[in-house]
Amino acid sequence: MHISGIHHVAIIASDYPRSKRFYTELLGLAIVAETYREQRDSYKLDLCTPDGVQIELFSFPSPPPRVSRPEACGLRHLAFRVPDVDAAAKELRSHEITVEDIRTDEFTGKRFTFFADPDGLPLELYEK
């Protein structure tokens, strides 16, 4: 097997318009396509990061909550690479998004911080 990279990450939102705004307007991800799937009463929004990784944002009627804290088993968080973690954190805070203190990865020496999407999904900013 030869894995050449990550193609996409899928996220289910409890409030589709709110999450769509968050990922497109606040985080600045580009919209590739938006589809309403009538048989599922669900939207699928394909987003893309500048390096080509896609995020699929789904809506479903009444999705069950997913435990994410304290450290539940499963996907832990989604990390975005940024050139300047201070500037990115400042921008998030200007939109009243709570951002944790910036820390330094003890193994790589890189700086990072965490914040959450509208449904509490843990997101990370990792300095390039």
From TrEMBL:
<dbReference type="InterPro" id="IPR029068">
    <property type="entry name" value="Glyas_Bleomycin-R_OHBP_Dase"/>
</dbReference>
<dbReference type="GO" id="GO:0046872">
    <property type="term" value="F:metal ion binding"/>
</dbReference>
<dbReference type="InterPro" id="IPR004360">
    <property type="entry name" value="Glyas_Fos-R_dOase_dom"/>
</dbReference>
<protein>
    <recommendedName>
        <fullName>VOC domain-containing protein</fullName>
    </recommendedName>
</protein>
<dbReference type="Pfam" id="PF00903">
    <property type="entry name" value="Glyoxalase"/>
</dbReference>
<dbReference type="InterPro" id="IPR037523">
    <property type="entry name" value="VOC_core"/>
</dbReference>
<dbReference type="InterPro" id="IPR051332">
    <property type="entry name" value="Fosfomycin_Res_Enzymes"/>
</dbReference>
<feature type="domain" description="VOC">
    <location>
        <begin position="5"/>
        <end position="128"/>
    </location>
</feature>
<keyword id="KW-0479">Metal-binding</keyword>
<dbReference type="InterPro" id="IPR037478">
    <property type="entry name" value="YwkD-like_dom"/>
</dbReference>
